[in-house]
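Figure 2 data, in text form.
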Amino acid sequence: MISSSSKISRREEVSELFEQLGRVLDQKLEALLIGGAVMLELGMKDATKDIDVVCRSEADKDQLLVAARALGFQIIGPKKRHERLGVNRLAVKGGHNLDLFAERISYDFSISEDMWQRATKIRSFGNLVVRDASIEDIFIMKLIANRPGDAPDCTKLVIAELDFDAIYREIEAQYRKRGDVEQKIWITYIEEGIARLEDNDLTIPIGDKISLLANEYHEKSAYK
């Protein structure tokens, strides 16, 4: 049974919600689970409030919103903690937030096919197929989001021994893809997040390379 408290502390609650959504959905839909819900599943976090889900398209996200509404969720707009993120609809019920994205996470940083393929676990709940994002990709997205609780989560992820080479490859590929320079501001969010971790005596091997990308962004922005 899904708890009415403001946080989810049992991973079974997340599965129960997905089972309910899968029963209500009219057709198959694939989603990527990111953030605290994956960390809860892995035993790296005691509780989470936001269940962050990325759909492959706006159409899929709309279907999931319809299913959530059918389960009694209220559909609302984003809150201040989402200001850096590409989420424009939340499904809220009993203090729980289902944050729904349609591929785009922040500006032109989106879920790449490599991120889908790096998913560590695939589960089926009726018409809903859920992939759990890798901890490397969760780390990137938490650096970007900078919501309350994201910094402590990033610390736990670093301690879990991340593949920083894979993290940098993803960040650089996203930064180098074609697009307006204004859409690359997310690289500065990552630099800020890494700086906070380093201020707490954590070693982030890719910190200098991220700063070079951020400096490049600032230089290009100055000429716009």
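Caption note: The CA atoms of residues 64 and 175 lie 29 Å apart.
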